[in-house]
Every structure is written in structure tokens, then in C-alpha cells.
Design goal:
HIT family, subunit A, 5 strands, Histidine_triad_HIT, Histidine triad nucleotide-binding protein
Length: about 120
């Protein structure tokens, strides 16, 4: 498989890990968009949120718990954080392996949901 995040999860590509267990990996984004910016990935390859199957729903719930724990470990749970999943090309998804961006560490700007072409 030629998936970047599968290679990171397998240890073939190094990452700055925050947390790892048998199902998930949390690591620092190499192009941070906030003072704290980590990626939360399942080790199971699922390309997009649209590809999550019924048997994956419990894992997605656990992924949210991993996000909560990562925010606590990184010291941003009380001040606030943003949890983002991009799904598909119009969202800006760059790696087709489901993942969450966990951002915080500063007051983040408002998200309007309006693209520049529709503003």
C-alpha cells in the first residue's frame, strides 16, 4: 500500500508521536496550522469519512476518546481546541486515510464554511 499514514503507523516513516496504542496513533503535524497541531489516525486504513462502515463505528467513537485524551495531554483541553476531519477533494483532504486534525494553543479564528469563490 502506498498510503503515507499507513507507513507512519507501521513505523516505516518517522513521526513525532504524542500517543500510540494498538488501534491509534497521534503525532505532530509537520506543517502546523496552530501552536498545537496533531493528527489522530486509526491504524486501520479507511480512505475517507464516507468509507466508514457499520463495523467501524465503535472505532470512530474510540477515536474521539483518543482526541479528548490527547487534548488533555497537550494541555489544551480546558482552553479549547478544534477537531477537524476533511472528507474529499473540496474539503482539502490531502492524505486519503481518515484522520482528525486537533488544533489549539491559541485563540483560533472563526470558521465560516464559505469558500473564497462563494464569498
Amino acid at each position: 500500500m502506498d498510503c503515507l499514514f499507513c507507513k507512519i503507523a507501521a513505523g516505516q516513516i518517522p513521526s513525532n508521536k504524542v500517543y500510540e496504542d494498538d488501534q491509534f496513533l497521534v503525532f505532530h503535524d509537520i506543517q502546523p496550522a496552530a501552536p498545537t497541531h496533531v493528527l489522530i489516525i486509526p491504524k486501520k486504513h479507511i480512505a475517507t469519512m464516507n468509507d466508514v462502515a457499520a463495523e467501524d463505528l465503535a472505532m470512530i467513537g474510540e477515536m474521539h476518546k483518543v482526541a479528548q485524551n490527547a487534548a488533555k495531554k497537550l494541555g489544551i483541553s480546558e482552553s479549547g481546541y478544534r477537531l477537524i476531519n476533511n472528507c474529499g477533494p473540496d474539503s482539502g483532504q490531502a492524505v486519503y486515510h481518515i484522520h482528525y486534525h486537533l488544533l489549539g494553543g491559541a485563540k483560533l479564528g472563526a470558521l465560516t464554511g464559505i469558500s473564497e469563490s462563494h464569498a
